[in-house]
Fold each of these.
Amino acid sequence: MTTDQIQANLIQASHQIDMDDIVREGFPTLREVANEVSLPLSDEDIRLGEKMMQFLHNSQDPIIAEKMGLRGGVGLAGNQLGLMKKVIAVLVPNEPEHDEAGQVIPPKEAYKLQEIMYNAKIVSHSVQDAALETGEGCLSVDQEIPGFVVRHARVTVEYVNKAGEKKKIRLKNFESMCVQHEIDHTNGIMFYDHIDLKEPWAIKDGMLVIE
Ligand SMILES: [Zn+2]
């Protein structure tokens, strides 16, 4: 199948992206630099982004995820669908809150970050590094690869949103790690490329560990 055919299948109205659409380690697009999406955005590329976001919503819904056999995900990149296009979707939920009686209640805003990004790139970053306390996983990697995935603590990212507007956002904490993971995919980089294999859990000077 050509990548155009792959995309045409993915964006059919009746199709919902599932684990069978996600390519795994060894598939060449995971190690290639994707092409920038042409602007203004085509209807096909807008629909692709929406399908990717729908996948993330489905994957975080326990009932739908079980029915469809989805692993939970907070981000997805075009390369993971066998496409060579710089499109990513990120969906980072907020933690539940507690009411005055200490009961767990849903957060006021469901998501910390919910965005489809075309041609996302890091335009500046902190000197400080950071890593998630528990390491990272990836929908394209079926095994656990333990270790700190050392990234920039804070990044400024430029991208085009699905309305075609140019955006520039600053990110820190989990959202920063998540968006860097997805931008890496569009450049053929896997999360474990950032793990020090000799000392996977070494905390480097000044590195922030994000809970
Ligand atoms: Zn990934």
Note: Residues 59 and 66 are 8 Å apart (CA to CA).
Amino acid sequence: MAKKLHYFNLNGLAEPIRYILHYTKQEFEDVRHGFDMKKEVKDKLPYGQLPIYEEGERILTQSLAIAKYVARNSDLIPVDPWVVAVVEGAAYTIYDFWLKIVPYVKEQDPEKKKELKKHLLEETIDFFFTRFEKHLQENGGYFGGKLTWVEFILCGIVEASNLFLDTELEKKYPAVEAVVEKIRNLPGVKEYIEKRGPYVIDQ
Ligand SMILES: N[C@@H](CCC(=O)N[C@@H](CS)C(=O)NCC(=O)O)C(=O)O
């Protein structure tokens, strides 16, 4: 059945899904929409937002649900129900962090944007990342003791945050940095990154 992932030409919320699809060797169409997405296209999205994932006639929304779905049938889904819940908890916390970045991304006023960036770089990142660091260090470098779909989410959100904040936030957090490096060098992911090259945004 034809698989399609729709998103913008950006890492954002779709890159972890792209990474999982490449790592698990699934063929899919990587559909990239312009930021000036036409109203006719937006109106066809179930909740007006991207990413969406299609399999034949069926459509999935919500990036975390899509990531978990495309990781099924692979070694990226934990078996123990407790670990399933632990890694999902980590995913929701990674998104709690991302939701602190979004107002900065959307802010148009240069002065306000500067203030928001300062707060993110000086406080918010450290609040979350010292805790991610501790969680990873206490569990052998992974949220649930071994590699799961949630490390892909962490890597993607670090990369998206770096892109918008023009930083390399993982550099201060060795266990987080190790996860990011691990994901980027996985078979399938490494070749995809080399092929697509870096993302660029207008600041
Ligand atoms: N909770 C949703 C959030 C989706 C979302 O915020 N999508 C943004 C891009 S990252 C979007 O489509 N923005 C365009 C719009 O809202 O018009 C998910 O995780 O998929």
Note: The helical segments are 15-23, 39-44, 63-70, 81-106, 110-137, 149-165, 174-184, 189-196.
